[in-house]
C-alpha cells in the first residue's frame, strides 16, 4: 500500500480524473482458466502504470492473482457476471498513533445485473491482500472510501515502499497529463501537448 501522511496527493489524483475502473464480463463459456487469463490481462494493464520495471510488474500481478483467487472461485460458481477493478482511497489508523492515507485496488465480482458484489478483495500496489473485516469492506463500498485499524508495528512496512510510492506518484502524474493533452486535442485540435508527452516518453 502506498501511504501518504496527508490527503493532498490523493485529492489531487481524484480531482484530475475519475477513479479508474477496469472490468470484464464472464459467462457460461468461460472456465476458470479463461477467467484467470482475462483477469491477468486487466491486472497487467493496471499495474503497468505503477510498475515501470517489467519484473516488478510481473511480481505484482502474480501476487494480485493469488490475492484474488477467492473472487475467481466466486466467478466460476455464479457462471455469469462482471469482474471489476478500481482504484480507491483508504485511511489506516495505527492504534491512534498516526493515520495514513493510501491508494488501494478494489477487486469485486458481481452476479449478472446485481448491484452488490458476491465478493470483494482490497489490495495494495504490490498485489498483496489487505486484511479487512467484512464490515470494513461493506462500509467502504457504501461511501467509496475505506477505513481500517491496524497494529502500529505494521507501520514500519511503509519504510521499504518509498521507491514504489515515487513510481506510483510519477505514473499518476503522467496519466493526468495525458488526460489533459487528449482533452485539449478533442476540444481544439491542439496536438502540442500530445507531441510534448511523446517527446518526453
Query: How many helical elements?
Result: 7
| Class from secondary-structure proportions | alpha+beta
Ends distance: 26 Å
Say what oligomer this is.
single chain
Query: Helical percent range?
Result: 40-55%
| Beta-strand content | 15-25%
Whole-angstrom Rg: 18 Å
- Overall shape: it is globular
Number of domains: 1
Summary of the model, kept short:
This protein has 201 residues and is of the alpha+beta class. The protein has helices at residues 8-16, 32-47, 54-67, 69-78, 134-143, 162-188, 192-200; strands at 2-4, 21-26, 81-94, 98-111, 117-123, 146-150.
Model description:
The chain is 47% helix and 24% strand. Strand 4 and strand 5 (117-123) form a beta hairpin. It has one domain. Helix 2 crosses helix 3 and helix 6 (162-188) packs antiparallel against helix 7. With 201 residues, it is α+β, with helices and mostly antiparallel strands. The radius of gyration is 18 Å and the shape is globular. The chain is built from seven helices and six strands, in the order βαβαααβββαβαα. The model is unreliable at 1-19 and 154-164 (pLDDT under 50).
